[in-house]
Amino acid sequence: MSAEPNSALDGFVPWPEEFADRYRRAGYWRGEVLGSLLRAPARRDGARTALVEGERRWTYAELDAAADRRAAGLAELGLARGDRVLVQLPNSAEFIVLCFALFRLGAVPVFALPGHRRSEIAYLCELSEAVCYVVPDVYEGFDHRELAREVAAGYAGLKHVLVFGDPAEFRALERIEAEPRAWPDPDPAEPALLLLSGGTTGLPKLIARTHDDYMYNIRASVEVTGLDQGTTYLVVLPVAHNFALGCPGWLGALSVVGTVVLAADPSPARVFPLIARERVDTVALVPPLALLWADAAGAAGADLSSLRLIQVGGAKLAEPAAYRVAGVFGCVLQQVFGMAEGLLNFTALSDPAELVAGCQGRPLSPADEVLVLDPQGRPVPDGEVGELLTRGPYTLRGYYRAPEHNLRAFTEDGFYRTGDLVRRRPDATLVVEGRIKDQINRGGEKIAAAEVEGHLAAHPAVREAALVAVPDPVLGERAWAFLTLRGPAPRLPEIRRFLAERGLAGYKAPDRLEVVESWPVTGVGKIDKRELAALALERSAARRAAGAGGAPDRPATQNKDTDKGESDHG
Ligand code: OOB
C-alpha cells in the first residue's frame, strides 16, 4: 500500500503488520471485498427478493445488475478507484445500489446523515477531498440542491453533484448508467467506506473502515444475530448509520440472501402495517424509538407477530425499558453497544431476560481486546467503573487525516479511548455507566458539545457557551446550552435560526437556553460542566414543581429534526 497525496490512503492509519498478519491467520480478515457481497447470492438465488421499498421490489439479480450498470456509469463520469464520494441520501434502494456501485469501482463513500447541513457537508467534502456529492432533490422540506450549490461554490474540488429525483442543473443519479464492465477488485486492506464519528471535538472525525475489517464486522454480526435466508430485515434507522448498515444491518441481511425492507419514516403508523405486510422479523432501533413502538403496539392492532429479534442500541436502554420492550413484543431483545469506530457488544439470543435487561452485551470478537482503566490509566477490578479502551480486528487505529487528535484518542500501543465509562462483570458483559467524552447522546444522536459551543459563541449577544447533557425520560438526554451574555438575552427560536443559518444540522441545536452571570469553574479553571448539569437538574425540577413541564416529548430518530424544542429560557 502506498499513500499518494490525495489518495484514499493518504491519512489512513493501517493496523501494524504484525496485527494484520494475526487477523488474517486467525481467519478474521479473508481478503473479501464489499462489492462482491452480492455476487454469490445473485448467481445462486437471483430470483429471490433482495429489496423492498414501498411498492417496488428488486430481486438479487436485478440489484446486482443495477449496481454494475451504475458502477459503469460512474466510471464514464470519470470516477475511479480511491475517489471519495460524499453520500447524503435518505433510506432508499438508490442508496443501496449506489453503495454497491462505489464498492465495485473501489470508490469510497463518505456517509453523511440526511440532517447534515452546510457546516458539516462543506467540512466533510474538504476533509475527504470528495470529488462527487450525491443528494436527494428535496427531503423533509429541505432542498439539498441548494445546499449542493453552496458547497460547490466554496469547494473547487467538487466535480460532480448527482441528484436523486429532479436534478435541476445537476445530473440525475438514476440516469448514471452504462453497459456493465468488470473492474479489478480493490485491495481488501484499503478503506472501503468512511463513517462519521459521533465527535467530541469542534469538528466531526472520519473513520476509514477497510473491506477486510468491515466484512468481518458484518460476518460476525450476522452470526450473533442468527440472520439467514429466511430473514426479513427492516431498516428504519438511517441506512448509512453503522448500526443499520453493518451490525449486521442491511449489508448483513443481503450477505445471507435475506430480504431488506426500507422505511423512510419510523413512526408506528407507517411502519407497523409494513411489518405486517412484509412479515418483518428483524429490526434495529434506538431506545426512544423502541419505547415509542412499545407504547403504540398495544393500541395499533397491527399484526407484529412476525418480529423475531429487536436490536436496541446507540444509547443506553434502561433496565425497566428493556423489560417493557421485550414484554410488549414478545420476541428476543438484543442490546447492542457499538460505535462507528469499531467495537461492538451484543447480548446473545440465548441469554436469559435478566441478563439482557441488565447489561449492554459482550465484545463481538474473541480478538477484541478490552481495557477498563481508572483516570490514572490503571486497570480497575471487574465490577468497578472505568474508561473503556479497545483494539481489535475491526476497530480503527486512527481517525482519518487527524494526526493531532489521534495522539489523544489512542494509546501508544493502539488502543482507542472510547470515552465511555463501563463496568465489566465477571461474565465479561459490559454495563455502560456514563461517559467522560464531552458529548450529548440525544436518543442515539450524538452531539459534540465543543462543535455547538463554537457556533453559539459566534452569536453577537453571547460571550461564552457551554452545552451539557441533562437526563430526559424519553430521549435519555437532552442538550441544554448555558450562556454568559454580552448583549440582550436571545431566545431559543432565535438561537435555532442562528445555528441553522450557520449551516449546522438541526438535531444539534440546544433544547433549552439557560443564562448564567458567571461560570462555575473546576480546580484548573475550566468551566465545570458537572456543576452546570446539576444546576440544570435543579432548575428543571423547580420548573416542574411550578407546573411548567413543557409539551410532551417525541423521540429523535436520527432521520429528521423531530422536536423543535419544547421550551425557552426565562
Ligand atoms: C452507535 O455508534 P455511534 O458511533 O453513533 O456512537 C457510539 C457511542 C458509544 O461510544 C456510546 O457512547 C454510545 O454511542 N452508545 C451506547 C450504546 N450504543 C452506543 N451507550 C449506551 N448503551 C448502548 N447500547 O451508536 C452504534 C454503532 C453500532 C451499533 C450500535 C450503535
Automatic annotation (TrEMBL):
Region: Disordered, residue numbers: 543-570
Gene Ontology MF terms in the entry: acid-thiol ligase activity
Domain AMP-binding enzyme C-terminal: 451-526
Name listed for the protein in its UniProt record: AMP-binding protein
AMP-dependent synthetase/ligase domain location: 40-400
UniProt keyword annotation of NADP present: no
Source organism per UniProt: Actinospica durhamensis
Basic and acidic residues: bias regions: 560-570
PROSITE patterns membership: AMP_BINDING
PANTHER family for this protein: LONG-CHAIN-FATTY-ACID--COA LIGASE (PTHR43767), NONRIBOSOMAL PEPTIDE SYNTHASE PES1 (EUROFUNG)-RELATED (PTHR43767:SF1)
Keyword vocabulary terms for this entry: Ligase
InterPro entries xref list: AMP-bd_C, AMP-bd_C_sf, AMP-binding_CS, AMP-dep_synth/lig_dom, ATP-dep_AMP-bd_enzyme
